[in-house]
Amino acid sequence: MPIQRMFIANRGEIAVRIIHAAQAMGVHTIQAYSEADADMLAVRLADESVCIGPAQAAQSYLNVDAVVAAAKAAKADAVHPGYGFLAENAGFVRALTAAGITFVGPSADTIDRMGDKVAARQAAQSAGVPVVPGSKGRLETTDEAVKVASEVGYPVMIKAAAGGGGKGIRIAQNEDELRKMAPQAQAEAAASFGDGGLYLERAIQSPRHIEVQIMGDGKDAVHYFERECSMQRRRQKVWEEAGAACLDEETRKHLCDTAVSLAKAVNYVGAGTLEYLYDGVTKEFFFIEMNTRIQVEHPVTEMLTGTDLVQEMIHVCGGGKLRQQQSDITRSGHAIEVRLNAEDPLMQFMPFPGQVTGLTVPEGKGIRFDHFLYEGYQIPPFYDSLLGKLIVHAPDRAAAIDLMVTALEGLEIEGVKTTKPLHLALANDAAVRADDFHTQWLEPWLAAGNLTSTR
């Protein structure tokens, strides 16, 4: 039965994005908010809104009992989690299921399987998807990690079995470093995710981060091509593109086909992303993990393919079948997204919450700004610093970068510092324009002083 009353258990720009998509489908929207978010734009746009607790996320957006109780009281028949917070929490999905409420995402069992990186690697290998050589299962001790490293060869990457966002990741060049870093990674993983399990894999030098957008209805699955997300600072993406100009057509097809194979193998429902490392020299790609939710960077795929991915996931999670066959999905031009954060990039990216005293949003063909701002809005200091995402689409990559410069110059968020100067500097950098960068490129570029107040 199609979703009729949807509870949005998130905040910020993604809450606004979900409201727009749902209302366009005729779905009644109910926005959750914390006491610190009573004035946010999503509350103003939703058909209803419900306070779910204090400002601290642990007592509101991460409080399973409070969110489920609020959704039930609001007579919601579905909950959209957005990204972050409870989006990949299998316990939350089981609590909703017990309350008779649909989760707009995959099943709890799928989240358990694909959210655990070790289990996801095993599922990928079973589906014939290449993975980076590494441990066969979870590692609980340093001695186990040293034994695996001697087999796959140094350098090795140590990762948390649970969670994401770069938490728990270390790169060890030799056994001495591994013995020092493994306990640190284990402690960080336990503190961040409540699970100190690790796994280990060979570190690919200067790789690209390529990911594939998929959508499934439980029986069938399709892909919406790939995204290039190598521009990262502290393993956080700052600039994303669709497609990946570094891929040839043969590699692109193989990559996307493997993603669909894995999605079908786990009977996937909803939107998901499979992430890969790509070696541009050997043209090898390796599966690293799956994110069982809508991604921050989904708009570049929407601009490339002309598909509203949020509406599609609402449709299939409401019991609908995929509305597009693979042959219906085509790519056109090139899209780029940059993340505008309330941070001062000239002061080591210091957080800069404050009041938006003026807002000028660029307009024009191929320009889109997903955000939750308005003049007078007081940005609360309790949450992620993401203010919005500026997205452009043009016939080719060079034209898209030029359009990004125009769009950035037309965007004014007054009253707070933002990462706009970083993106302008990147858009004017010769290496970026030549598509000559990788996942370890940005931090040395920053350390070399390429971002200054005069740029």
UniProtKB/TrEMBL annotation:
Q: What class of enzyme is it?
A: ligase
Stored InterPro entries: ACC_Biotin_Carboxylase (IPR051602), ATP-grasp (IPR011761), BC-like_N (IPR005481), Biotin_carboxylation_dom (IPR011764), Biotin_COase_C (IPR005482), CPAse_ATP-bd (IPR005479), PreATP-grasp_dom_sf (IPR016185), Rudment_hybrid_motif (IPR011054)
Question: A GO molecular function for this record?
Answer: ATP binding
What Pfam families does this protein's entry cite?
Answer: Biotin_carb_C (PF02785), Biotin_carb_N (PF00289), CPSase_L_D2 (PF02786)
- Coiled-coil segments: none
- For this UniProt entry, which segments traverse the membrane? none
List keywords of the entry alphabetically.
ATP-binding, Biotin, Ligase, Nucleotide-binding
- Is Kinase there in the keyword field? no
Q: Boundaries of each Biotin carboxylation domain copy?
A: 2-447
For this protein, the Enzyme Commission number is: 6.3.4.14
Q: Which domain of life is it from?
A: Bacteria
Catalysis performed (reactions): N(6)-biotinyl-L-lysyl-[protein] + hydrogencarbonate + ATP = N(6)-carboxybiotinyl-L-lysyl-[protein] + ADP + phosphate + H(+)
Residues in domain ATP-grasp? 121-318
Described by its record, this protein's role is as follows: This protein is a component of the acetyl coenzyme A carboxylase complex; first, biotin carboxylase catalyzes the carboxylation of the carrier protein and then the transcarboxylase transfers the carboxyl group to form malonyl-CoA.
Check the record and name the PANTHER family matching this protein: BIOTIN CARBOXYLASE, CHLOROPLASTIC (PTHR48095:SF2), PYRUVATE CARBOXYLASE SUBUNIT A (PTHR48095)
**What's the name of the protein?**
biotin carboxylase
Write down the species.
Answer: Sulfitobacter noctilucicola
